[in-house]
């Protein structure tokens, strides 16, 4: 990425705007993931068959991943045509109201089948907003970075993931410890959804203070904007979008195995108390957060592609020991398992945003990076909790690990094929 135009945004403002926005977006996204396991099966679906209700709830969780590419295409178009700043604000204002609406939604006992339908609709809105949010935040950081610190700047929006998760899990943990199970199901779970409106206003304030990135301004000056960025991505940059998507699959799959699936399986099949599991899961997020800056430093020093290859090989090996580490029901063993998995998650997640942004030219960068990321979400995460639960139930936990190793192999092949695209620039 060539961004020689002077940057009007102070570094602190750039990094804060990229970090705060993604933290809010991921907080909104993760409170749904937690509620989809702990609350929604009981509240929004028929309770006669708990297993079916859980699977239906996880299916609505998956819906947002199918909305993400649409959001990436829509917001990406305006991000590449009209600017990064305005598009980032619009993405934030799409996801925020959707999250608040979920918190106000009556349950199945009150409005019947309309409850899961509306839940799915608002979940779609969450995915639509996040599809446009992530790419813009990454570009805000990377297009403003010095050439030798692309990955370091680009890791700030990535830090929004563990911070957002800690905030969401911490909120649910406090609620579960301060109110009865009945009150938590009746109204307590709604508090973080409704309260997220305050976070959205904070993010909106910060983003209205920034100006456009140097790369976008240079593109305007040179009259290089694409007329239809979406079409150009698939026609002119087919290799980049294909390899970028495949290279990101394992990042998504690992994360949702280590969060949504493990929470569901650990509290049901392994009978670990919900509050205890949430504690060790929050601890594991610290390892996730630790892995991100480590990977960014290594990526700037040795190259993004090489860092991602190393991380993927380690994840392949982790898949082979998945079952032995997660079958005992011991809280200590589970904590070690989650910490190791999330540290690997940080190593692969930290440089992936910078890597995807770097393989597309500025004229289609918002659209291309966002689409690669969100399409990988469909392939690597949308059905992961559902498929993992099915595999574990029918064949055993070992097959969940094999699932992860197989996906990692596909990612490794894509990364090796994309070596020339993912170069330091």
UniProtKB/TrEMBL annotation:
Give start-end ranges for the coiled-coil region(s).
none
- Gene3D superfamilies in UniProt: MFS general substrate transporter like domains (1.20.1250.20)
The way it spans or sits in the membrane comes to: Multi-pass membrane protein
**Which CDD domains does UniProt cross-reference here?**
MFS_ShiA_like
Return the InterPro entries for the record: MFS_dom, MFS_sugar_transport-like, MFS_trans_sf
SUPFAM superfamilies documented for this protein: MFS general substrate transporter (SSF103473)
Q: Please tell me whether the keyword Membrane is annotated for this protein.
A: yes
Q: Which UniProt keywords apply?
A: Cell membrane, Membrane, Transmembrane, Transmembrane helix, Transport
The residue ranges of the Major facilitator superfamily (MFS) profile domain are 14-425
GO CC terms for this protein?
plasma membrane
Protein name per UniProt: MHS family MFS transporter
- Please tell me the species this chain comes from: Mucilaginibacter ginkgonis
UniProt lineage: Bacteria, Pseudomonadati, Bacteroidota, Sphingobacteriia, Sphingobacteriales
